[in-house]
Fold these 2 entries.
Entry 1:
Amino acid sequence: MFENLKEQPADKILALIEAFKADPRDGKIDLGVGVYKNAEGVTPVMRAVKAAEKKIWEEQITKSYTGLAGDPAYADAMVGLVLGDAVERGQVAAVATPGGTGAVRQAFELVKMANPAARVFYSDPTWPNHVSILNYLGMETQSYRYFDSETGGVDFEGMIADLKANLKAGDVVLLHGCCHNPTGANLNLVQWKEVVAVLNETGAIPMIDIAYQGFGDGLDADAEATRYVAANVPELLIAASCSKNFGIYRERTGLLMAVSADAAKTKVNQGSLAFLNRQNYSFPPDHGARIVTTILTDPALRADWAAELEEVRLGMLELRKQLAAELQRLTGSDRFAFLGEHRGMFSRLGTTPELVEKMRADSGIYMVGDSRMNIAGLNTKTVPILAQAIVDAGV
Ligand code: PLP
Ligand code: TYF
């Protein structure tokens, strides 16, 4: 049997971690994998997470199974964080999943279970795992235009034209709730409303992947689009990740939500989500979910977490503004102003794999081959070095 297995292509983002480690040069700069790092290059455990873990250690009296959907208190807390009061709680079916990736995977499986003919539309570009999982599940896919490498912004006309021309009832449109990965370019609320209008005209169903709530414009601002969509479409899937905004990457903490305008559908939706959990791993992991629940339900911990997250967000925003200003100074043009407009952890520079490779070879700068940079990999001292390298490479 094993003789039938073949080498699988490596994840290009994860492969970069190894390449960076193996580079002996001092002064190398890691702008690869999407993990937050502070100015010292450390991915810290957040204060509220430490406090919650202490509390859990002291108070937890059993580690027996939770439920197939995970702890209901976790779902309640996360539904509140993501959706606010955009919909009634009774309209939302929700299950804990191993990370946002688990939620994405289960969402696609739910689509396949409900409508094997559904096509999933994704932005060009999108997080490579989206496409990889869809292909693995044998689902039909189609991309829609999204990034305009001339302006560094969203090609909104192209996006709407592609959706209008191709969507039919039952198709699923995958959207990033905020902080688009890999580009950093996002729709504004007016544009979101236009997308929702197209969805409702065509009968296509949105699926929102929200993995960076709190990294863009703030916890509520980053959820605004998702909340608008939830309140204005008949059906919506949401895959949420706690990896970044709680800094609990390895705890594998996510939530899959199925929102229906018709609350009567929620019981069957909930059963379907729990069924999928059971088919794949029975009970979802609990430790990260318990940390999140402990923080979100304790006013002092929640306030401290939100404050630390806000520092993280503002720090990244400051770095992008500094980078845009430095490039403005070096080039005497506004060509790179888009870097200051992007939001979240990433920006796509919009250059060729050859120039990305040149910056790695000449300056020890590691960005993903599609020219995605993790802004959190910078600090105030390395921003000018990166800006100079971008100019020297002739980007
Ligand atoms: N979706 C997007 C767009 C992401 O960038 C990520 C990566 O972190 C995830 C989902 C899932 O992350 P995780 O499975 O670590 O929670
Ligand atoms: O895009 C990123 O860098 C993050 C982390 O298979 C990540 O989302 C990267 C690759 C992967 C899983 C997570």
Entry 2:
Amino acid sequence: MSEFTKTLCPYCGVGCGLEVSPPAQFNKAINRDSQGNPIWRVRGDKAHPSSQGMVCVKGATIAESLDKNRLHYPMMRDSLDQEFRRISWDEAFDLITKRIQTVRFTQGPEAICMYGSGQFQTEDYYIAQKLLKGCLGSNNFDANSRLCMSSAVAGYIQSFGSDGPPCCYEDLELTDCAFLIGTNTAECHPIVFNRLEKYHKKNRKVKMIVVDPRRTPTAEAADLHLAIRPGTDIDLLNGIAHLLMRWNYIDTGFIDDCTSNFSAYAEVIRHYPPEVVARQCGISIEDLETAARYWGQSQRVLSLWSMGVNQSSEGTAKVRTIINLHLMTGQIGKPGAGPFSLTGQPNAMGGREAGGLAHLLPGYRLVKNDQHRAEVEDFWGLKRGQISPNPGLTAWDMITGLENGAVGLLWIAATNPAVSMPDLERTKKALLRSPFTIYQDAYYPTETAAYAHLLLPAAQWGEKTGVMTNSERRVTLCPAFRQPPREAKADWEIFAEVGRRLGFVKEFAFANSGEVYAEFVQLTRNRPCDMTGISHEQLKIQGPTQWPHPQESRGAGEAGGEIKTKRLYTDLRFHTSDGRARFGAYYSRGLAEPPDPDYPLVLTTGRLYGHWHTQTRTGRVEKIRSMHPQPFIEIHPRDAAVLKITDNQVVEVRSRRGKAFFPAKITKAIVPGTVFVPMHWGALWANNAEANALTHSESCPDSLQPELKACAVQVLPISQQ
Ligand code: SF4
């Protein structure tokens, strides 16, 4: 029997296959981390269809983060100025159930909130939904995916009648034109980019367009880089549409047979002639025309995007405007074509399937939909009307709920909002007001642990068995290959035990996570994400598979599920009531907080190749820390000259909400008028260098995703280093 366990990388939504083996079996001179713990061996899984053996620095070094600074025991304190003291799990469960009952009967179930994470496995997500939305009657479950890709969810639902990226990674190697907007794929989704770049280099006729205010490594590889001003994405997209229409590159047959609302859209794009669009976006008319020509003349166009599009106060409109280009040119439902959102986290897709946002229910259902609620209520054995028809509090709503006393209990799991939320000073003040915060995580300390009353040690990746789904809808079993340290428990087990202690004994009578998954997939029957043909056992035997994978396809195909599942909408029928995809007609509104004389620069935030989110894991890996030792701010030489800033000089960056300090990196890689700061550094890793001290919480009205990507700032030189 092989000493290697096949699993999935727990970092980004690319979802690369990994093989892991114990330290002792692989290397007599065992490698140890800086705290002396033996390091497990990790390598890429050549058989995993998504990554084909490739792995980036994060995946390759994941094992080094497994043992350092782990939270081993439940700990509690009565107030935030006290030290934590160790307690037993029994005491912890007792405390949680008493607190939940008190809040439930004094403030009502809607005062109970849980803020979860795309780091959850699907089983964790599902049990949390059943506990909160089903048994407790509170739809206040939201996840950090709200900050990452909820605009993509809203865009897909509004355009296609259902969520779900319609493409697959194979499309990266079949396209004629890759249109990347708001995504630094080379650094943030490296293995997706490797596949695309290899193919692009081999096929010189294939075009790659990158839209980004920064000249990122992704933009470096492009045939055409459109360095637009932040907030002008819709101008650009409508401008490309205008030219496609003018040059008659549109697919009238597809528009007539498969779509609705085209005339409203055509009226909008009429107002986006190239002269206006080029001026607005800060690019040349020639480059705009080249982009439209590349798109219009290609047989197969694939667009890719991530947080640069989603994290916007008009995020849903941007997503739909990308989709519009595909609809007007018939670029969907065929190999090498389609609108493909890349998810940030390893199982953000599983969260969508399990209903892990405040407006969702399991099986791609909506809280607001009467029939959807009734279906879930029946399945869970609840009384009709037990699930509230109102979407719950989103991530930012929970912060404002703490401010106004609407939140009586906040349960945070596997995420670090004291770094990742917008408007951090306000966020931290709100967290200080929480009557009772449970923080469930694998690591201690973290920035958020400082705001908790009760700490619960969670088993993490490799210490519990569960399922994760990557950006191409590929589901992979991630088996436990080691014991959780000391008293750490799987997230789903913690939620289930709380459920049982609240009296829902039969509802949470699961012997293992395989049983949880088996129950969950029944709720996907006949839904767009039908996974009734998938089980832990099937995944173990047949390997990763894409959904939809209904029961009748069980056992079919090499990987058990390659029947019509690579791409959605190949029959050109959509999930809307009339089966047609809907055009969205949007004028650009621009940034929620545009620059002005007081705050004359636009700050955009982003990610670096090695680090992951708030460094909870990657901050413990020496190799990654030495790659990215400190935060910085990128400034164009023209702005630096005006501000009299020299390279590496420390600058103070101020917005209307806060300030932070960074050494300046003067570079032409950023457009004039815009500055860039990576978002990874919280209070634990650097002093006063938190990007989100500056950002604001203005959100997209449809997706309620905050505009973390842009705010107005001023930059002031401080000292010479
Ligand atoms: Fe992990 Fe993403 Fe890197 Fe793949 S690309 S190894 S999933 S971090």
